[in-house]
Amino acid sequence: MIKGLVIYDEVDVEKNKSYINWLIEDGIKYNLDLELILAKDINYRVLDSKFKFVINRSRDFRITYNLELVGLRVFNKFNFCRLGNDKLEAYNFMETLDIKYPKVYRSIEELNSNKKIIEKPKNGHGGIGVNILKGFKSLDFNKNVYQGFIGDYVGDIRFYIINNNIVNSVIRLPKEDETLSNFSRGGNVELYKYSYLQKEIIDKILSNIDIDFGGIDFLLLENGEILFNEFEDAVGSRMLSYLGVNNTMELFLEHIRKSVKGMK
């Protein structure tokens, strides 16, 4: 058995208990002996002698950085973990690829009183902390990202990526009279058949970054155009399971097995 570690932040363990158990139990089928540890309990000095790899689900890219420093293979790697947990860095990355994303306001001087904007935590996920603002008196550009409101928004497309390949895609549609489409907040979800042109955009991203298991989210507009929204580092599979797609864990564990099989 190949020993590996699964890292979670303490506040996330209880709500992800079934997923953690699923990961650990199914890992045995792939010769992977997985052990759960809380982010706060990591001792970097002993990890490299006990474990061959780590699945970091804590969303803390500093942990991934330190794990890679001691020579451990981490799923996901540092660069994607960082982009998945800092939206501004992700937008800067899209800028280098010439991929469109919603207008981002980087200072109070760029705003004027007649704009409606979206406020998101830089490291947020699951729609937590997302607000629509009409007043701009208490903006915090160090903690949050501020985007222009999109009136012709249809829904969010999530592309599920394993081993740098699209394995599935879903579209999340907001409830009537709602703006946010997050599944955890009551949005509707359907399997999505992406176009060749949309796949070209995803392939362009994947040729410039490695994703072991993650999500790439785009906003779909009424004219069919898509705008990059965010990366999801510690992506889950609740939406896929809800839609009857249950092979994501198998694909991820098989990718891990093949990646670490020949490691010394």
CATH topology of the largest domain: D-amino Acid Aminotransferase, Chain A, domain 1
In terms of DSSP E residues, the strand content is 25-35%
Taking the sheet with the most strands, its summary is: 5 strands, antiparallel
Q: What would you call the shape? A: globular
The total strand number stands at: 13
SSE string, helix = H, strand = E? EHHEHEHEHHEEEEEEEHEEHH
Structural class estimated from helices and strands:
alpha+beta
In helices, the fraction of residues equals 25-40%
CATH class descriptor name of the largest domain? Alpha Beta
Count of discrete structural domains: 2
How far from one another are the termini?
A: 13 Å
- The count of helical stretches stands at 9
Q: What is the CATH architecture annotation of the largest domain? A: 2-Layer Sandwich
Q: How many whole angstroms does the radius of gyration measure?
A: 19 Å
Spans of 5+ residues with little confidence (pLDDT < 50)?
A: none
How do the strands line up in the largest sheet? 11-10-9-12-13
Mean pLDDT: 89
CATH superfamily of the largest domain: ATP-grasp fold, B domain
Domain ATP-grasp fold RimK-type: 100-251
GO molecular function, one term: ribosomal S6-glutamic acid ligase activity
InterPro entries: ATP-grasp_RimK-type
Protein name: RimK domain-containing protein ATP-grasp
